[in-house]
Amino acid sequence: MPLMLKLLLAVQVLSALAIIVLVLLQQGKGADMGSAFGSGSSGSLFGATGAANFLSRATKWAAVVFFASTAGLAYVSHKGTSGPAVDSGVMQSFPSDRSVPQVPGAAPAAPGAGSSSVPGAASVPAAPAAPAKPDASVPSAPATPAAGDKPAETPAK
Question: Could you tell me which residues belong to the region Disordered (predicted)?
Answer without folding.
Answer: 80-157
